[in-house]
Design a protein that fits this description.
This protein is of the alpha/beta class. It is globular and about 65 Å long. It has helices at 2-17, 110-122, 137-147, 184-195, 219-231, 243-252, 268-277, 286-289, 304-307, 312-318, 321-327, 330-353, 373-385, 389-403, and strands at 31-38, 47-55, 58-64, 75-78, 82-86, 88-93, 98-99, 102-103, 125-130, 154-157, 201-205, 235-239, 256-257, 280-281, 356-357, 420-424, 437-442, 445-449. Helix 1 packs antiparallel against helix 10 (312-318). The chain starts with a helix and ends in an 8-residue tail after the last strand. The strands form 4 sheets. Strands 1, 2, 3, 4, 5, 16, 17 and 18 form an 8-stranded mixed sheet that branches. The protein has a 5-stranded parallel sheet with strand order 11-12-13-14-15, with helices on both faces. Strands 6-9-10 form a 3-stranded parallel sheet. It has 2 domains: 2-86 and 412-449, Urease, subunit C, domain 1 (Roll); 88-403, Metal-dependent hydrolases (TIM Barrel). Helix content is 35%, strand content 19%. It contains 14 helices and 18 strands. A hairpin with a 2-residue loop joins strand 7 (98-99) and strand 8 (102-103).
Length: 457
């Protein structure tokens, strides 16, 4: 309790002190990151004593220190004892929906979007996908994000998304943020209107949120959405909870299950279907954990790394005994913990079976799923589920980029975008070393810099 009260008092200060924004790189200057340990995102073991050359936003060369020739005038940065890995990529987040302890369309402003994008970036997430509930402002900001002039992480999205009248999603949304078709004809028209804006996906909310809603999406609606979307060259991401819904959606052609199956263990039939259809799977392990973990006072709550992500109003809520008691209500807690346990087991089963796994957290959908913290926590949960640290990192970089059909990022290789996360330690041995951030590079610019701790004298 005392820890949370200190968190509430120091949240703003922590946000200010946790990071320094680096100076812009002079135009045309080549940067050499030397003597680094490199995890390239392709799944192989880290390579020691490596040099990465960065030029005009891209990686020009990467290799052993002795083999990479340094151009005259290059800026040299010594990364001895540090690890460079690709910037993390979230395939499932929500942009500008929360602020402090509030959620809703009133938060979809440019200032709030940039605040969140900068927070994702500070925590090593250089690309996010806003999977639904996007207002028209999304399309005004996206070209600026792609050009690197907006500030913060780059982003892609799923437009408004298609929900259910009197059903999912159970959150407020403006008329220009969400469709809720009642008929097949309305659903097809909504897809056609969405397709004209050229999003990365179309999102459908299918389930009833643990039986908490009075209605769920009818099969004829989601089948019409999938058929119309595919006719327009768009993929469909489906919000799911139940195994039976997942099976029916895969059979109908859904391209991405946007949450893990959490009611029961996956079976051979679903695995076979997903592999046959090439369906992607996003476990979002941290979704259920976020409802209770802060009330349990984990040790990492005390860290400056965490405090720098928490807005003052949210910090005060987390310190509120009444909120904590509600979060730890035995019946609710049991449901959330059981869902997480099933989700972890299903992730490991599907990963080992060769199903395509992406990386996402639902960050930004509720105040408790904090940008950056959610992604860092997801890596830990994936390792707890049974993946190795390198496997988790590969999912969060190379595979997350592949899910988005992005061939310009996700790995450290010549010609790729210089989206890089520099950390102290070796995340291949200890996944929490990804939180020891020393720098973040976005498209060749050092956008975040934290000085290494100095030894006491």
């Amino acid at each position: 309790m005392r820890t949370l009260l200190r968190l509430a008092a120091s949240a703003s200060l922590g946000a200010l002190l946790s990071v320094s924004i680096a100076q812009a790189q002079p135009a045309g200057q080549i940067v050499a990151l030397q003597h680094a340990r490199v995890i390239d995102g392709n799944g192989g073991a880290p390579k020691n004593a490596q040099t990465i050359l960065i030029e005009q936003g891209k990686i020009r060369a990467v290799g052993p220190d002795a083999s990479v020739k340094l151009p005259k005038g290059a800026r040299i940065i010594d990364l001895t004892g540090q690890t460079v890995l690709p910037g993390l990529i979230s395939d499932h987040s929500h942009l500008a929906y929360t602020d402090g302890t509030t959620s809703g369309p009133q938060n979809y402003t440019r200032d709030n979007a940039v605040r969140e994008l900068k927070q994702w970036q500070r925590y090593g997430v250089t690309t996010i996908t806003s999977l639904g509930l996007n207002a028209p402002l999304f399309y005004e900001m996206q070209p600026l994000a792609h050009a690197g002039t907006l500030g913060g992480a780059d982003f892609f999205g799923a437009d408004r998304g298609i929900g259910v009248p009197e059903g999912a999603p159970p959150m407020a949304a403006a008329d220009d943020q969400l469709y809720r078709p009642a008929t097949v004809e309305e659903a097809r028209a909504d897809v056609d209107e969405t397709a004209a804006r050229h999003p990365s996906f179309i999102k459908v909310w299918v389930d009833d949120f643990h039986h908490a809603l009075p209605a769920r999406m009818k099969p004829e609606i989601y089948k019409a959405v999938i058929e119309e979307a595919h006719a327009k060259g768009l993929r469909v991401a489906a919000h799911v909870y139940y195994r039976e819904d997942a099976r029916k959606l895969v059979e109908a052609g859904a391209d991405l299950l946007a949450h893990g199956v959490r009611d029961e263990l996956v079976d051979a039939d679903l695995i076979t279907l997903m592999k046959r259809h090439g369906t992607w799977y996003l476990p979002t392990l941290g979704l259920d954990e976020s409802f209770y973990i802060y009330a349990q006072h984990p040790e990492w709550l005390k860290s400056g790394f965490f405090r720098g992500a928490v807005q003052p109003a949210l910090a005060a809520q987390l310190a509120d005994p009444a909120w904590q008691a509600k979060a730890l209500d035995p019946k609710v807690l049991a449901v959330n913990q059981t869902s997480l346990a099933i989700n972890k087991s299903n992730l490991l089963t599907l990963y080992r079976a060769g199903v395509k796994i992406g990386f996402g957290t639902d960050s930004g959908a509720t105040p408790l799923r904090m940008p950056g913290i959610a992604e860092q926590r997801e890596l830990v949960l994936m390792v707890q589920a049974g993946l190795t640290p390198l496997q988790a990192i590969t999912v969060a970089t190379r595979d997350a980029a592949a899910l988005l059909d992005l061939t310009d990022r996700g790995v450290i290789a010549p010609g790729k975008r210089a989206d890089l996360l520099v950390v102290a330690g070796d995340p291949a041995r200890n996944i929490t070393d990804t939180t020891h951030i020393r720098a973040v590079w976005e498209a060749g610019q050092e956008v975040v810099s934290r000085p290494a701790p100095q030894p006491r004298t």
